[in-house]
Amino acid sequence: VLSSSLHRLVREFVAQNNTSQIKHVIQILSQEFALSQHPHSRKGGLIGLAACSIALGKDSGLYLKELIEPVLTCFNDADSRLRYYACEALYNIVKVARGSVLPHFNVLFDGLSKLAADPDPNVKSGSELLDRLLKDIVTESNQFDLVGFIPLLRERIYSNNQYARQFIISWILVLESVPDINLLDYLPEILDGLFQILGDNSKEIRKMCEVALGEFLKEIKKNPSSVKFAEMANILVIHCQAADDLIQLTAMCWMREFIQLAGRVMLPYSSGILTAVLPCLSYDDRKKNIKEVANVCNQSLMKLVIPEDDEMDEAKQSLTLSAEPTSEESLSKPEAASSGESLSELDVTALNQPLSFPCSSERIQVTLNLDGIVQVLDCHLHDTSIGMMTRIAVLKWLYHLYIKTPRKMFRHTDSLFPILLRTLSDESDEVILKDLEVLAEIASSPAGQTEGHGPSDSSDARPGPVELHIPARASQLSSSGTKSLECSPSTPTMNSYFYKFMINLLKRFSSERKLLETRGAFIIRQLCLLLNAENIFHSMADILLREEDLKFASTMVHTLNTILLTSSELFQLRNQLKDLKTPESRNLFCCLYRSWCHNPVTTVSLCFLTQNYKHAYDLIQKFGDLEVTVDFLTEVDKLVQLIECPIFTYLRLQLLDVKNNPYLIKALYGLLMLLPQSSAFQLLSHRLQCVPNPELMQTTDSTKPSTGYRRTTAPNIDYTELLQHFEKVQNKHLEARHQRAGRAEQLDRRVVL
């Protein structure tokens, strides 16, 4: 009855255009009833306000503020029945006003977001009806104030209540579906919150959020030129590291699309992206999807680094987006820019807080943040807990950067060098191979010769080349081009890091004997493929000549000799040494010989390889003055086995020419006399029994010179001086053994006492 009477009264005031009386009625209903302390009065007031709105009809829009405010106040009433009546009253008010309520949308949305989490099912049901009505109005209208709404949405999106989250996502889906509302422009404001909702415990909410994010990604692919990629990059970096698999996979998929669509716009965020992506590359099959997407991200990001990045001055120059192509299509004048801070500069606790963004600008600066990238790569190499595939990816990145931006990368070489050397001790052969590729590139890159980028360790400075008794110095040879510098290693070849690398590699072998035993040959053989084999052997021999640890020097020489004689990678070098026809080959022989003197048997094998049979015989004659140990005899045994290998086929064939190779036969008999009655003795003895009688091997025409003539010495080599050097080195080894034996005896005495 009250409602009917009120309806007639208001209709009369409307007919009379009596605005003051209408406001007076609304004020009485609000102040004296809806906001009364008595529950029944509040209920009556809510019914009266709804009736008043219905009576006003299309004119209710003039009084919406006065009608809505008291109803919204009742949303907070302790009595669930009153909250329900308030919801019903607001439904009637909105239904009558329709589009006129849009200026008040924020307060309505705020009130509804609270009712969405109401514990009373009737209230919740009523709020859902009101929510659907409001969505219909927004969908129909073209006057929705999105700019005014975004701050409220950004605030509410961080709610932890499931119903509130569901309410928020439903509204985002509605707004996204309205053609006249461009929510994509404001995606940076809500993206972080969306990813947090994606981690909700409710499967339904997660699914809704997935759908919302999927719709946004579709729109991004359709309109990449209008997307603010830079403002969302760091948000994705954070969520690519989430513990929740769904969040991480979704963020990684977004990152993949961003890199492919935005191209070099993503370069300033490379360090953060790598921090997020690299660990994922070592995931097992349980996270196979994440691993695969992360791998695509990594490869796509790597392709963005170009040689031009090495030519730009990081402090002054930058590339504008208009000059840069993307992998999918060109982007023109993006509307937003973001500072290129890496993940390390972000507060991860920001996951629970709204993120703020910088103002947009018409042009975006695209600069490769090389320092940040190198810092991330270095950090991952130092982390012993990371997986093999991550370590391989890090080394691929370093190699790629040295190829594309060598000048800038050499500024970081001194800091990277130690960890690259330590990585040679990795358990994985694949990691070691990639590590050697990086080290080889450092050692051979022309950028390494630039002034001011040389090795900083003064102790590693290369000593002067050894004076050799040969007519031409390799340092006098002219060459052109970077790779042609490799013709002889008697001067600092490759670049200033090459010799430093060789020194530190030998130091590592010396300190880690297990590395030398298990991986030494593998590492050196790979280096011979990646770099110039002659350079490697020449430099190592030069360094070992000055090695104070004589036992290590002997072991290292034995390892190098075995590689030289048996590795297919060194076929060309063996052929070069076999004839000693050139000054370079004689130079190399003399250098190797001086270091090979640390190990008597390897010295003889070098003479066999170079066909210096007379000198080999002279050396074996000196063996009588040496201390013959079990190790010594074992090495002689191994040399006999080597003589039977394909490497020394030419040597065995020369045994047919007894007349021209007497010292070869004498040298082999000398080895036979050194050996005890063993299998090696029997093997060599049988071989020498096959040597033919010289008289039987004579040709019918004895006047012609023999075509099988072999030299006994190489020209321009002072063999006497080499023999003296051999004796000098062996005397040092004898003194060192005596000293070790003396120390061991003193230690035994102390133990007895």
TrEMBL record:
Family classification: Belongs to the VAC14 family.
Q: Where in the cell is it found?
A: Endosome membrane; Microsome membrane
Q: Enumerate the PANTHER family for this protein.
A: PROTEIN VAC14 HOMOLOG, TAX1 BINDING PROTEIN-RELATED
- Where in the numbering of this chain does the Vacuolar protein 14 C-terminal Fig4-binding domain appear? 513-691
The domain of life is: Eukaryota
Q: Which Gene3D superfamilies match?
A: Leucine-rich Repeat Variant
- Read off the Pfam families from this record: Vac14_Fab1_bd, Vac14_Fig4_bd
Among the entry's GO cellular component annotations, what is one? Answer: PAS complex
Subunit details: Forms pentamers. Component of the PI(3,5)P2 regulatory complex/PAS complex, at least composed of PIKFYVE, FIG4 and VAC14. VAC14 nucleates the assembly of the complex and serves as a scaffold by pentamerizing into a star-shaped structure, which can bind a single copy each of PIKFYVE and FIG4 and coordinates their activities. Interacts with NOS1.
Q: What is this protein called?
A: Protein VAC14 homolog
Give the Polar residues compositional bias ranges: 317-329
- Ranges for region Disordered: 315-338, 446-465
Q: Which UniProt keywords apply?
A: Endoplasmic reticulum, Endosome, Membrane, Microsome, Repeat
- Keyword Endoplasmic reticulum listed: yes
- Any one Gene Ontology BP term: phosphatidylinositol biosynthetic process
User: Do you know which SUPFAM superfamilies this protein is assigned to?
Assistant: ARM repeat
What is the role of the protein in this entry? Scaffold protein component of the PI(3,5)P2 regulatory complex which regulates both the synthesis and turnover of phosphatidylinositol 3,5-bisphosphate (PtdIns(3,5)P2). Pentamerizes into a star-shaped structure and nucleates the assembly of the complex. The pentamer binds a single copy each of PIKFYVE and FIG4 and coordinates both PIKfyve kinase activity and FIG4 phosphatase activity, being required to maintain normal levels of phosphatidylinositol 3-phosphate (PtdIns(3)P) and phosphatidylinositol 5-phosphate (PtdIns(5)P).
Stored InterPro entries: ARM-like (IPR011989), ARM-type_fold (IPR016024), Vac14 (IPR026825), VAC14_Fig4p-bd (IPR021841)
